[in-house]
Amino acid sequence: MAMNRRNFLKVSAGASGSLMVSITLPGCAGIQTGYESDTGEWRPDAWLELTADDEVFFTLARVEMGQGTYTGLTTLIAEELEIQPERITPRFAPVAPEYRNPLYKLQLTGGSTSVATSWEPLRTAGAEARQMLVMAAARVWNVEATECRASEGRVVHPNGIDSMAYGQLVELAAKEVLRGDIALKPQSEWKYIGKQRGKLDARAKSTGTAVYGIDVDLPDMVYGVVSRPPRSGGRVRDFNADQVRAMTGVLDVFEIERGVAVVADKYWRARKAQDALKIDWDFSDAVSLSTGDVFDSYRAAADDDPGESERSEGSFASAMEEGDRVVEAEYAQPYLAHATLEPMNATAWYREDGMEVWAPTQAPDLGRIAAARVTNLGPDDITINTTFLGGGFGRRLTQDYIEEAAAVAYRVGRPVKVIWSREEDTRHDLYRPAMLHRMKASLSGAELTGWHHQIVGPQILDWYVRNAAPAQYPWAPKFMYDTLGSVGLMAEGIATPKDFSAIEGAIEYPYRVSNVDIRHTHTDPGIPITWWRSVGFSHNGFAVETFMDELAHEAGEDPYQFRRRLIGHEPRHLEVLDRVVRLADWQSPVPEGRARGLALFRSFGTYVAQVVEAGIENGAIRVYKVTCSVDCGQVVNPRIVEDQIEGGILFGLTAALYGEITLENGEVQQSNFHDYPLMRQYERPEVLVDIVASSESPTGVGEPGVPPVIPALGNALFALNGKRQRSLPLRANA
Amino acid sequence: MAVSLTVNGDERSLNIEGDTPLLWVLRDELGLKGTKFGCGAGLCGACTVHLNGQPVRSCSTPVEMAAGGDVVTIEGLGEGSRLHALQDAWIEHGVPQCGYCQSGQIMSAAHLLASNPAPSREEIVAAMTGNLCRCGTYSRIIAAVESVVADTSDGAQGGGA
């Protein structure tokens, strides 16, 4: 099934009748290409710049947040350009229509799409530039271009001896005109793709020289901190501005839409002043829920509304009548924070000619909208400079932290860096939504005859559309922003693609069952939410693959054999399942006090099967080993694939073992790593990642490692002690 | 207050409130941005530097406690243009993902090897447990540290902290 979640809002609006925008032109000037004689720079396209000094620059439009685009995408363009990736200098892209992610029509990095969406365009860009260089050299030598070849940044003469560096050819190459399509190299001729090579950013990141958002330094820069309402929806009534303004180093204290900002000449002075800040909050419109209320509201909604049908085959009702038994279970998952190690931050500078922002962001075009909202500037007046990101995981798709920095800088008029504390980062995150799942299955003997899955909870687009819709139409006047947002929502699934965030991973249920009924009961308790590494797959994976395990036991069958019997029609699922079972030696006896659990799950086009070996030691769950087989199509950099899958496994285990954001009367109860822990070095299981050799197009690897490890661990614990855990995080004493 | 300290071999003097964490002095007063802010509470290790040869959490170390002391940060770990052996190993093994925690990881590892040139796997894991990595680079960290240990015990030159 085609997964185009987050592929939203390509509407040319107009669905409500109130807004008739029919032009789909990009909203800002494109990237200038061609040759600059003054500087000796040749830009054959939006990505490459080659100079007479023999330098090669590559504009990286998918931000680097640890997932490896810096190396991976550079490798793609290097392969066809015929130059070593190490000789290319990547640069982070400005906002421009050329750099939009074609799946989302927004300039965003997410959804494990970077390699898949760059695979053709970047190799083509590299091939075209290389061809023009070859043609230029052939013209100089007066030989046929087809007789020349390019290698390691040079064009080689047919005699095999003479050669010219690309830098010598840029001016001439810029004059060449390509005719027809340039054929891409076959897999057998690849020098860099699929080969074991280093990471291009490893040196900067091992010497402390990589610049993250928090490292941005500007002349005359000051520091801002923001006190936000402890309950979402709270408003400032009053605060002791005069007292705080008198403190050492404090330049200003003022209200912004999101709270009260303190600006000082030094960060620590801003923090100390913030400690003295006393704010009288108005909570009349604020969230007052506690975590229990959220799940109560979900259960009430589920009882009240069977939900919108998202997939229906056969008749689940008849299957229940005809089967000899029905199995039912309810699963629940908590809110989760992202906990990027680099806390939210952004630096902004408002000048007469506009605003410049430096930020670690996954969506710089949305950042411009966020900054435009709180200033009198339009998106084109705002420049976003993207830095390295100290983790993203979806958190940096939402631009609240840029909005704040822009609001503060707009008032201060000099460069301001706004840094969130860890406590603020945890309490004012937008969370992976808490979700509830009601599962039912009918069996006849050992045969699974019906599958029913009711997903209960919010969907993320409702929270995201506010900036996403205007970002697609940056020329739209600001008074239309909210309209664009509501049009996007109203038209969802009609004029705009559907939001799959709640149901992805559930609707693709892959096992062969005749009667399938999958529904979503849409209910939103009003707690801010956003994308979180693997998004809907993260909760649906747990529900689907745990329930499959329950059914295997109900059918009296080995969980591997049970799945295998029902997945024979899906060769790529079957392959990873068989491989992982073989590698983990599934049938062999487990050491005393340990047990194994299995899960099989496809997300972002990538097939993953995992076996977890776990036990309980000194009253705590201990994960000993995770074996993982993955099919992600062709591999650009094997080391990065291993890293991403292993990283996803540890991310999933952190959620399974510890992840839980709770609310008490609307206030988030967690604050820092003592009460929102991350897996530490000593808890790390042995992880084995097995990559299936493939000639299929590449699919994502940043997220697919996450979903299956959570049910695989829960299933292992059931195998260990016979206690089925249906809510997260998992407990040793369940 | 006036505070003097040695940072990466250079004498530095500044006038600053004594309760300012060493982290912000290094980053904002001295321009050494390689040391990172992660939690402000000594829980994540991203801000790890060496103070008088000991690893400390600079986010929770008031600068007055470092007065007169000798501080080494990631920028001063190598010798001149030569990187510390651990940094070379980090590059060779491609340890970093987002990379934000890695300065702190390397500083913790460097202290371990300076005090125990041939640690066991268990000793490495114990020494590195105070440094969080959200991306999950833990296994490559162990491999990189072990490669330096192996090189050193083979008689090759290992960098000292």
TrEMBL record, chain A:
Q: Name one GO molecular function term.
A: oxidoreductase activity
Q: Where is the Aldehyde oxidase/xanthine dehydrogenase a/b hammerhead domain?
A: 207-285
Which PROSITE patterns does the record cross-reference, listed alphabetically? Answer: TAT
Gene3D superfamilies linked to this entry: Aldehyde oxidase/xanthine dehydrogenase, a/b hammerhead, Aldehyde oxidase/xanthine dehydrogenase, molybdopterin binding domain
Q: What's the domain of life for this entry? A: Bacteria
* Coiled coil stretches, renumbered: none
Locate the region Disordered: 299-319
> Cross-referenced Pfam families, in alphabetical order?
MoCoBD_1 (PF02738), MoCoBD_2 (PF20256)
Query: InterPro entries given for it?
Result: Ald_Oxase/Xan_DH_a/b (IPR000674), AldOxase/xan_DH_MoCoBD1 (IPR008274), AldOxase/xan_DH_MoCoBD2 (IPR046867), AldOxase/xan_DH_Mopterin-bd_sf (IPR037165), N-heterocyclic_Hydroxylase (IPR052516), OxRdtase_Mopterin-bd_su_IorB (IPR012368), TAT_signal (IPR006311)
Q: What is this protein called?
A: Isoquinoline 1-oxidoreductase
TrEMBL record, chain B:
Record-given protein name: 2Fe-2S iron-sulfur cluster binding domain-containing protein
Record domain 2Fe-2S ferredoxin-type: where? 1-77
Species of the source: Marinobacter manganoxydans MnI7-9
High-level lineage: Bacteria, Pseudomonadati, Pseudomonadota, Gammaproteobacteria, Pseudomonadales
| PROSITE patterns on file | 2FE2S_FER_1 (PS00197), 2FE2S_FER_2 (PS51085)
Q: Could you give a GO molecular-function term held by this entry? A: oxidoreductase activity
Listed InterPro entries? 2Fe-2S-bd (IPR002888), 2Fe-2S-bd_dom_sf (IPR036884), 2Fe-2S_ferredoxin-like_sf (IPR036010), 2Fe-2S_ferredoxin-type (IPR001041), 2Fe2S_fd_BS (IPR006058), Beta-grasp_dom_sf (IPR012675), Diverse_Oxidoreductases (IPR051452)
Q: Which Pfam families match?
A: Fer2, Fer2_2
Q: What keywords appear on the UniProt entry?
A: 2Fe-2S, Iron, Iron-sulfur, Metal-binding, Oxidoreductase
